[in-house]
Amino acid sequence: MRQAVEQFFQLYAEAYSSFDVDKVTELFSLPCLFLTDDSKLMMAEVTSLEKTIRHQFNLYRSLGVAQVKNRVQHLVRLSESMVFASLYWYFCDANGKVLQNCHTSYTLQRAGEHWRLVAVMIDDERFALKSIQP
Fold first, then answer.
1. Within 10 Å of residue 49's Cβ, how many Cβ atoms?
2. Model pTM greater than 0.70?
3. SS3 state of residue 32
4. Distance between CA atoms of residues 110 and 1, nearest Å
5. Of 43, 50, 101, 126, which alpha carbon lies 20 to 30 A from 61's?
6. How far apart are CA 73 and CA 105, in angstroms?
7. How far apart are CA 134 and CA 129, in angstroms?
8. Are 92 and 98 in contact (CB under 8 A)?
């Protein structure tokens, strides 16, 4: 299970690093949730998810983020087809220099052979991104 989830997040990082809205969108299961300390946002439509991803990509570009990398910190099996994953993300410039890092947690569900995101718990990404000086 760990290897499959790590491979999933490698694909996720590659899609984010190439700013590919379609590839990122494919890695979600709808409906899905985005949770922060002060908000809960449910995405039920592909167009809403795509809009949110595009907004995130625009923010990354404006801050000089050209690549993202991750490291899986913890995995917890929730059921036969669900897992909780805790990751560290690294926001890098075009030269691969780490500009900032953050922590984000996810709930994934397996559908057949594929893992899909069903919930994203955004821990400190907003704070980390605010500290990057373009």
1. 19
2. yes
3. strand
4. 10
5. 43
6. 10
7. 10
8. yes
